[in-house]
Amino acid sequence: MTLADSRIDRYRTRTMTEVPSIERNDPTVWGRITSPELANFDADGYAIIDQLLSPEEVADFSFEIDRLASNPELRLDERVIIEKKSNRVRSIFEVHKISQAVADLIRDERVVGLARQVLGSEVYVHQSRVNYMPGFEGAGFYWHSDFETWHAEDGMPSPRAVSLSIALTDNYSFNGSLMVMPGSQWTFVPCQGETPSENYRQSLKEQEIGVPSHDEITVLGNKHGIAQFTGSRGSALLFDSNIMHGSSNNITPFPRSNIFVVFNSVENVLQDPYAAPTARPTYIAARDFDPVR
User: Fold this and answer.
1) Which of these, 157, 166, 201, 250, is most buried using a 10 Å CB contact count?
2) Is the C-alpha dihedral spanning 59, 60, 65, 68 positive or negative?
3) How far is CA 173 from CA 6, 141, 176, 179, 209, in A?
4) Under CATH, what is the fold of the domain 22-265?
5) How many degrees, rounded to 5, is the angle at CA 239 between CA 170 and CA 293?
6) Quick check: pTM over 0.90?
7) Is 280 within 8 Å of 195 (Cβ atoms)?
8) Inter-axis angle of helices 100-107 and 109-119, to 10 degrees?
9) Which domain of life is it from (predicted)?
């Protein structure tokens, strides 16, 4: 018996047969909330921070991510994900190691301080990326819980992680902005199906494994409703790792882009995957657990 076999898995998923949802017994807020914007985070599982970045900062970061996307050498890097249909850059992972400007932003107390409040500990960067959703052809993501994937494929023990999405373009209700189910972070939805080898190569373009059933989504939707992240460029969305969320395709002329960073508690570091043959690459799921300073 291996160490992985002997672990207690409180969030069993990727099963061969359907298993019922699990009521979360971990907190949503592990620390002490001091920012007014986070006052409802425990109940809702998310918070919107208006004007996290100034217009001048947004302009600087917009220039920076355009520079990265137009770099032909970087396009050959495995950390760059290309849209299946449009052949455009969809995401650039580990962007804080590619761009010094993004690295400095992540260390900014306005950013990392939000994660420390919610998680109640020092934090490290589990994942960072820039997301591009071009007009007309931007592909969305189906409903899912990030923690389900991070638990199954990365070995994250508990949902003691948060994601911060910083908008560099205006988020309208019609250009593929993120939708969340407020309060759904209290329910873990196991998914069916064995994780294929190197599943990340497919799932980062279009996720098929690790998505809940229509029935589960219907139950959660009827119970919690759906909220949408809309706001001007420079605003941000902080959300719990287990909240059910997704986005639709962008068929409008208005592109959408954001800087995305996942903070995990240093008390919740990755182990062996719970439901995958091997761990994903470290540019997707970091195994350098040094806290952000």
Assistant:
1) 166
2) positive
3) 46, 15, 7, 9, 27
4) Jelly Rolls (2.60.120)
5) 95
6) yes
7) no
8) 50
9) Bacteria
Separation of alpha carbons 220 and 116, rounded Å: 28
Give the residue from 120, 114, 124, 158 showing the smallest Cα distance to 264.
124
- Boundaries of every domain in the chain: 22-265
Cβ–Cβ under 8 Å, residues 138 and 176: yes
> What are the φ and ψ backbone dihedral angles of 68, each rounded to 5 degrees?
-65, -45
Q: What's the Cα-to-Cα distance from 210 to each of 13, 125, 193, rounded to whole Å?
A: 8, 22, 8
- The separation between the first and the last C-alpha atoms of the chain, rounded to the nearest angstrom, is 39
Tokens 């592109």, residue located: 255
Instruction: Give burial (CB, 10 Å; 0-12/13-18/19+) of 87.
Output: exposed
What is the token pair recorded at 165?
């999405």
Q: Is 82 helix (H, G, I), strand (E, B) or coil?
A: strand
Do 106 and 180 touch, CB atoms closer than 8 A? no
Q: How many CB atoms lie within 10 A of CB 75?
A: 13
Residue pointed to by tokens 């470290």: 282
Alpha-carbon Rg for the chain in angstroms: 18
Q: List strand residue ranges (DSSP E) for the chain, in order.
A: 22-23, 46-49, 80-82, 89-93, 123-133, 141-144, 161-167, 179-180, 187-188, 227-228, 236-240, 245-247, 256-265
